[in-house]
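Comment on the following before class.
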Amino acid sequence: MRRKLLLLLLACAIVFTAATIVWRWQMRKLASAIRSLPVQEMETSSLAAFADLVLDASALNGMVDNRPILEQYKQNPRAVQHRAKLVATWMSASSIARYLPQTDIPVGKVVSSSELTQIPARYRVDGWNNSFCAFFDGKRAVVMSSGGQGPLACGQLEPVAKHASHSIFTEKLVRLQNIFVVAHTGIDKNEGTSSPRKREKGEDR
């Protein structure tokens, strides 16, 4: 009995040691791969890694790849770059949507994000550096991007914005009629939460 126990403990120690060696080898390989990437590629890969969390299936449009992100980048850098830009678009659009009620946007009218000067300039463009179109119906905020197809004609998007306000109930980036949309309830003006512009000024003090 004692001999069996010793053999069992020895087997466990061997398995643990082997697993540790494999894990360390994988970590060294990953670290080496990361160090070999230029800074821009590292940033792109980091952003793209969040795609499954913030992009709706309609926005992903079949761009599902379960391989490690660095392997994806080596095999298909354009696809990874596209997902990274969509994630960046979601980040900026979510910032706008969250604080849109605190801006001077006319209720029920679609305007270009370039007019929303209360919001920092870096949030007012999508992953392709195009302005968004923004809409607020008094309760819900909708922010729209062309997804890299150039600036949108905001004045023509009121029907799309109203439809998105009443039909999109996820805070992920959704593709609707070839337009990428973020729609959710913004922070009410009376809640006392400061806008991004005011928070930035406060942080600079």
